[in-house]
Amino acid sequence: MTRSKVQPRQLWIPVVIAVAAMLPAMALRIEGWRPNAVLDMAVFGAAILAAGFLLSWGAEAAEKYISQGLILAAVALVTVLPEYAVDIYYAFQAGRAPDEGYVAFAAANMTGANRLLIGLAWPAMVLLHWWRSRQQSIQLARANAVEIIALAVSSAYAFLIVWKNTISAWDSLVLMGVFGAYLWRVSRVPKAADEDEGDEPGPGAVIAQMRPALRWPVMIGMTLVAAGVILAVAEPFAESMIDGGRALGIDQFLLIQWLAPIASEAPAVVIAVLFVLAGRAAAGLVAMISDKINQWTLLVGMLPLAMSLGAGTLMAMPLDARQHEEFFLTAAQSLFGLALLLRGRLSLPGAVALLVLFVAQLAVAFTLRSDASRDIAALTIVAWGYLALAAGVMALNGRAILNLGRTAASLNTAGDPASTASPAKSPPDATH
Question: Which of 83, 143, 373, 407 is deepest in the core (most CB within 10 A)?
Fold first, then answer.
């Protein structure tokens, strides 16, 4: 398909808006002025959001030209930097001030980010695809078996963490190893062919069409500026949410669990939505699955290391009663999401189930926020509900599990026709 013509203003206008959103936060940061907790939260949150968009636009264009080794790892890390910066700050502070509640904040941010992706972002991809095309599932390519296997391994390991009730440095090594193996395998598998790949949505399209002498300085410049802003405002944004929750009378755990991930995940989700609206639903869903793998391996694995750095000694990150159930619920949701992908697609009924369960657990959390014991019990019930559904779906897809492993192992670097074929269109009534 012929590449759609794009105009420079499709890049420069969004970039100018993003820079304008970042300037107030940088001014406050440089001057050390904090007007009030609520305003601080809005200003620094807007900067995180704007910087995330800059990172996403640059990475979106870079991934068309970079796909190997350490550069692939760098791109993967850059796109999730907003989420990592805030959560690692909380974990670092947990090591420095173990009695100040930062452990709970680190756990809240991590579990919220993971559950938002599966409970909200994944269903959004399918629902938008159905609204646009009336197709009732998003069909993945054969090559995407690698993503599903990586999600399966990391989700299975999560239950070991639940059993141990701590996240240790050994867990960090294992999870980072899983992520490294995932990157290595993905780098050796050809990307699924996409007849509409030339039609990149949004500002990334303008960058992708620049001449190389201009393209690379623009991508690198946007990345450096955005990364610098994120690192500069991560601390005041993280602290403003603690103070803002206190000022507004909102449970700080819930505020950090949902507000920070929304700000940091929004750019990547918006890019994925644009892919779906451009007719590239599989690309959008795979981006969200990859984001989940990043969060579920690297983010979780970095928390005890950041905490150890703050404490000045190697230590594990403990999970109290509430954090244990939050992690258990996150692991159970991941397992259910994995089960829905076993046939290489995510269907409309599956997406609706993910969304309904996510809304239900949010309602439980906010309704019972003042009663910790009932809140924990309700979260446990929802988690077991996820596990029961996952077991049922897996029981119906036993053969698909075996085929998935064979497929991931058989993909090669020589251009396996099955791995490079465009995702098949799903029939209107395709369901799990």
Answer: 83
pLDDT tens for 293-313 read 999 999 999 999 999 999 999
Instruction: Identify the residue whose tokens are 């251009």.
Output: 415
Rounded distance between C-alpha atoms, residue 123 and residue 366, angstroms:
22
Burial of residue 167 (number of CB atoms within 10 Å: 0-12, 13-18, 19+) = buried
What values do phi and psi take at 357, rounded to 5?
-65, -35
Entry pTM: 0.85
Residues sharing a CB contact under 8 Å with residue 131, sequence separation 6 or more, in sequence order? none
Token digits of residue 274: 């644009």
Question: At residue 347, what are phi and psi to the nearest 5 degrees?
Answer: -90, 165
Instruction: Give phi and psi for 370, each to the nearest 5.
Output: -95, 0
What angle is formed at CA 312 by the lines to CA 306 and CA 315, rounded to 5 degrees?
60
User: Would you state the pLDDT for residue 75?
Assistant: 60
Q: Which residues contact 31 (CB under 8 A, 6 or more apart)?
A: none
Q: Which three-class secondary structure state does DSSP give residue 188?
A: coil
**Backbone dihedral angles phi then psi of residue 241, each to the nearest 5 degrees:** -70, -35
Q: Which tokens is 263 given?
A: 């700000």
Element (H, E) at 346: strand 345-347
What number of helices (H) and strands (E) belong to the chain? 18, 4
Q: Cβ–Cβ contacts within 10 Å for residue 414, how many?
A: 6
- The count of C-alpha atoms lying within 13 angstroms of the C-alpha of 179, restricted to the half-sphere facing its C-beta, is 25
Distance CA 47, CA 150 (A): 32
The predicted structure's pLDDT at residue 432: 40
Q: Answer whether 159's CB lies under 8 Å from 324's CB.
A: no
The confidence score (pLDDT) of residue 301 equals: 94
Q: Are 304 and 315 in contact (CB under 8 A)?
A: yes
Contact at 8 Å (CB) between 103 and 94? Answer: yes
Contact criterion met (CB below 8 Å) for 344 and 145: yes
Q: Sort strands 317-318 and 345-347 into parallel, antiparallel or unpaired.
A: unpaired
Q: At what angle do helices 348-367 and 252-277 cross, to 10 degrees?
A: 160
CA distance 398 to 390: 12
User: Could you tell me how many residues make up the chain?
Assistant: 432
In angstroms, what CA-CA distances link 351 with 96, 157, 270, 284, 418?
41, 24, 18, 14, 26
